[in-house]
């Protein structure tokens, strides 16, 4: 007779093993971010990849998110004759939540997947082993530049997304719903505080770290063959997306507990 | 090939298992490789040849036993000490393992650039020189690895392995997947570069033609152990039925084609 506790225990041990391996990978990766030698060309390549080449997809996401938000807010708020709050809702939603979360999720799909696939392919074709034989630490050469670029560049990307998202809301409000342009902009400017912007950028930094960490971790531990790389890619995107949503809640709680309590 | 009595690499009682100790791949492997010597490790697929070479390179850590290079125990070294040892090591991987994202010249000069041994300009000149040594013209310098045939990729891999004039070169199945003529070209190149730079060479292969051409000495790995080792010209008179079956490629004999344990 099979002990019913065995699969539970086995799953728990597997969870602990994965968690331990991830923590050790994170600590190792972070330690290589601050210890020389530094691979400037690798870092520059990742900065361009994350900070520049993702802008079109993030920009498109942001502008449509802002436009839909303005439209939906209008249809909802019109019931209470509160249409004037649309500018505030769009600005706060974009800077605090939608900008960082949507950009984080888009980048998890675009960058996290690409990193897992690239490093995973390098792993199964022995390129990672080749780095070691060439006296180059793969953690330092492959992982550290990606972690640094992800953490530093996502706030920049999200800031651009914030501007584009608010502009999307402005377009709908002014040209579709007939709002006064200067009033709309003034309402937007007045409602936003430094905390709204900064909290979004801090979230973006955390999401950039999570996305690159998951991409590197799953690629680095990729199994053999095309199937292994495919699985690593899927795992990178799924785990990064879930972690982004979890961490988003924790950071929101941290930044806005007073508002919630008040 | 030049050779003296000092052991460059020594494996003693090396054991390596996988799957929590259930799958024994190496079981007390003993092997001594002299300075300047070219040793070929032969054996069937799945007998642990690649695991042996990966243990020597520090890519895998043995469960027990010791591996020394120049008398230093490499199993218990720190990562930075191991990196220092690897500076005198070159490796030709089975599928060349060239970096897709870099042009050919940067692949060849990768170790030199990564260790800041020279400027990028000088590294490119060295890449030209090493590529010439393996019979490739400067036309390939700025191509990417995917633009080359597998034979040319192997040559580039060989040029990368010898770029820093290493004291030890490892060759993992250097002729696998190549046509007979290209395989012979690679064999000749390996002999040539070993003679040119006087390195200690360790090759793993199941290609007997290659083993006979490259090796001063041959060791046969079977069932996780070295079951025979001796000079290359003595392998035809080994009096070992396992070796006889393997080198003649016979299906009848003590080696059974069964699943690995």
The CATH architecture category of the largest domain in chain B equals 3-Layer(aba) Sandwich
Q: What characteristic shape of chain A results from the CA principal axes? A: elongated
Biggest sheet features of chain A: none
Beta-strand share of residues of chain A: under 5%
How does this structure look, described?
The complex is a heterodimer of chains A (262) and B (261). By secondary structure, chain A is an all-alpha fold. Chain A has one domain (39-253). In chain A, 86% of the residues lie in helices and 0% in strands. In chain A, helix 1 (5-34) packs across helix 6 (138-176), helix 4 (86-124) crosses helix 7 (181-191) and helix 8 (194-220) runs antiparallel to helix 9 (225-261). The longest helix of chain A is centred in the middle third of the chain and has 39 residues, at 86-124. Chain A starts with a helix and ends with a helix. Chain B is an alpha/beta fold and 261 residues long. Chain B has helices spanning 49-57, 79-86, 104-108, 110-114, 120-133, 150-162, 180-197, 208-214, 241-248, and strands at residues 7-18, 23-34, 38-42, 64-69, 72-73, 89-92, 168-172, 200-205, 217-222, 225-231. The model of chain B has no long low-confidence stretch (mean pLDDT 88). The chains are: A mainly alpha (262), B alpha/beta (261). Chain A binds chain B through residues 37, 118, 121-122, 125-127, 129-130, 132-137, 141, and chain B through 54, 57-59, 79, 83-84, 86-87, 89-91, 93-95, 97-101, 110-111, 114-116, 160, 170.
Keywords:
heterodimer, A: 262 residues, 9 helices, 86% helix, B: 261 residues, alpha/beta, Rossmann fold, 33% helix
Topology:
The complex is a heterodimer of chains A (262) and B (261).
Chain A: H1 5-34, H2 40-51, H3 55-77, H4 86-124, H5 127-133, H6 138-176, H7 181-191, H8 194-220, H9 225-261
Helix pairs in contact in A: 1-6, 2-6, 3-4, 3-6, 4-6, 4-7, 4-8, 4-9, 6-7, 6-8, 8-9
Chain B: E1 7-18, E2 23-34, E3 38-42, H1 49-57, E4 64-69, E5 72-73, H2 79-86, E6 89-92, H3 104-108, H4 110-114, H5 120-133, H6 150-162, E7 168-172, H7 180-197, E8 200-205, H8 208-214, E9 217-222, E10 225-231, H9 241-248
Parallel strand pairs in B: 3-8, 3-9, 6-7, 7-8
Antiparallel strand pairs in B: 1-2, 1-4, 4-5, 9-10
Helix pairs in contact in B: 5-6, 6-7
